[in-house]
Design brief:
This protein is mainly beta and 124 residues long. The chain has no helices and eleven strands. Strands 2, 4, 5, 6, 9, 10 and 11 form a seven-stranded mixed beta sheet that branches. A four-stranded antiparallel beta sheet has the order 1-3-8-7, with no helix packed on it. The N and C termini lie far apart (37 Å). The model has no long low-confidence stretch (mean pLDDT 97).
Length: 124
């Protein structure tokens, strides 16, 4: 499975961005997907997940601001980010796994496949 993120950039506080993650090498509709992020000097943080049936879960820090969606026909995962804060600054990674593991709680088993990441910078 190959995952390629895009859409990162620099935005002011309160701005919006839409990240995309193009997948190949697997039947996309059979994949469970997730977004993670990692800020400099901090541990990787789960942002949210979308199960292959479309059900979604979010970390408390992004709930009501971020929306995960996917287009099975285009084999693409999306992360719509609104009301961005300085603390949202991080490298954002999409991840995929044929087995759904939630990823928002312990015990944590990393997804099988990861993208290379796209940088999001929010400035005040």
């Amino acid at each position: 499975v190959q995952l390629v993120e895009s859409g990162g950039g620099s935005v002011p506080v309160g701005g919006s961005l839409r990240l995309s993650c193009a997948a190949s090498g697997y039947t996309f509709s059979q994949l469970n997907m997730a977004w993670f992020r990692q800020a400099p000097g901090k541990e990787r943080e789960w942002v949210g997940s979308i199960r292959r049936d479309g059900a979604t879960w979010y970390a408390g820090s992004v709930r009501d601001r971020f929306t995960i969606s996917k287009d099975n026909g285009k084999a693409t995962l999306f992360l719509e980010m609104n009301s961005l804060k300085v603390e949202d600054t991080a490298m954002y990674y999409c991840a995929a796994d044929p087995v759904f593991r939630g990823w928002g709680s312990q015990p944590f088993t990393p997804p099988a496949y990861w993208g290379q990441g796209t940088q999001v910078t929010v400035s005040s």
